[in-house]
Amino acid sequence: MSELKDVQDFVSTRFVHFGINKQQEIIRLIYEIAKREQCCFDDVIPEKLKNERSFPALKRYLLKRRFPNFSPQERESFHLLSKLKLDPDARVNVYPTLDINPKTFYIEKAVQESSLVQRLKKKFPRTNCVLIPSYKEYIADKKYSLADYNNRLDQFFIVRQDYDHLMPCPCSAASLGCGYHILNIGQGCVFECTYCYLQGYINSPGIVLPSNIEDFFDAFRKLEIKPGRVGSGQFTDSLVFDHLTEFSPLIVDFFRGYPQVQFEFKTKSKNIENLLGIPSAGNIVVGWSLNPQKIIDTTELYAASLSERLSAAQQCARAGYQVAFHFDPIVFYDGWEQDYQELVEQLFSSVEARQIAWISLGALRMTPALKKTIETRFPENKILDGELLPGYDGKFRYSKELRKNIYSKMGGWLRSFSPRGHVYLCMEEEEVVLSCKKSRII
User: Fold this and answer.
1) Which of 187, 83, 183, 96 is nearest to 144 (CA)?
2) 353 within 8 A of 417, measured Cβ to Cβ
3) Burial class (CB in 10 A: 0-12, 13-18, 19+), 249
4) Are 251 and 184 spatial neighbours (Cβ–Cβ below 8 Å)?
């Protein structure tokens, strides 16, 4: 935080002749360069430019230094760089271990007698329980801050969900759809993944768990056309709360009756005890997001380690479940090729190719709003040091050519182990998808 103040003071003194918006752009570029290069901010601008009166000339220099691998045309996409504002109260406090021990259960009156509520009361006898008319009324007209989001595990809301039981996967605008449907069995997650989109738009003071899982099944039964692929894990990790909700056995038993449908639990956890305690079903898929341990250590805080995820996948495969893997987001950094190639080798040494239902690939991406949130909650992050520019859908992405190169390398490593496995791209533009299809990566 003090570093940003120093940069602001430096720019306001050195470039007083620039307007406030131009100063904000210079501040952001100097701050990002100093952070990326691990140098003093005062060393970012050479002496010959420290009295520069031409804003375009100074900005061109800083953009070239901040994004050395972009073309001049790509750098022009940065028309107005947003103001950099860090809030010390919103910074994430990282603890050695994570303990799920809610301070308060807010329980909708309609579900106070539900089995989930009774189970939670037994598991957490000292947790305060408060009855509320509805979650919607409770949060109405309230605005929650990132500081509230940081403390989300203090409050759990147990609700009756009457809408959005099942919805199409919300792919980015202009991205090719994947045909996936989401079973929305909760909102909020215990993990602190630096890049997580949930931190960017959920206006909630806590974790939300629906108690009426049967209504989700009824919604599926009423569909005239059943989707081929359904999964949970869009707004919460599929299994991280499963020891509390015990939803997974109910979901397996339900979809056992729809063998033409594949249901996937997407997770970064090792919480598979309930799945291993019941007979498996051939159309149930358990999927893990994978990254090198280096990335897990720095950007996927509290999530299971790589070895724990692969061990859990191995156990599920041996129990008769299909497994899936999501290299998403793939993070580009010096040495990424060796790390990800070794990761692919570790995967196929743990699980046989025939046991894998599908593998997805997706390069790091984020909305402009999410970038600001990451800067505030994780000011020492490394993922924003990469070269990201506004893409076809307005999200910050690696350049198109870099993404093609990433997918080409990943596809080659995957195909060496699984020549005919199902590999697809997640939230990518048509041109990139078609290029990968032409190269037989997917």
Assistant:
1) 187
2) yes
3) middle
4) no
> Of 365, 360, 367, 364, which Cα lies nearest the Cα of 426?
360
Residue 328 neighbours by CB distance under 10 Å:
19
- 211: nearest Cα among 239, 250, 154, 180: 250
Candidates 187, 133, 130, 127; CA nearest to 154 is: 127
Residue bearing tokens 């995957």? 414
Which residues touch 286 (CB under 8 Å, ≥6 apart)?
A: 239, 264, 265, 267, 272, 275, 312, 313, 316, 321, 322, 323, 324
Q: Two tokens at 438?
A: 């032409």
Tokens of 197: 């989109």
Residue pLDDT, tens place only, 311-361: 999 999 999 999 999 999 999 999 999 999 999 999 999 999 999 999 999
- Amino acid symbol at 127: T
Largest pairwise CA distance in the chain: 73
Which residue do the tokens 């076809």 mark?
A: 392
The two structure tokens encoding residue 49: 């430019």
φ, ψ of residue 186 to 5 degrees: the values are 155, 165
Alpha helices in 205-292 (DSSP H): 213-221, 242-245, 247-255, 273-276
CA angle 74, 79, 82 (to 5 degrees): 115
- Structure-token match 């045909």, residue found: 179
Give DSSP secondary structure letters for 341-356.
HHHHHHHHHHS-GGGE
Rounded Cα distance between 79 and 124, Å, is 52
List, for residues 60-114, the tens digit of each pLDDT value.
Answer: 999 999 999 998 888 888 878 889 999 999 999 998 888 899 999 999 999 999 9
Report d(CA 329, CA 398) in Å as an integer. Answer: 11
Q: What is the pTM of this model?
A: 0.94
Nearest partner of 393 among 363, 424, 362, 429, judged by Cα: 429
Taking CB atoms within 8 Å and a gap of at least 24, the contacts of 436-442 are: 436/404, 436/407, 436/408, 436/411, 439/408, 439/411, 440/411, 440/415, 441/407, 441/408, 441/410, 441/411, 441/412, 441/415, 442/361, 442/407, 442/411
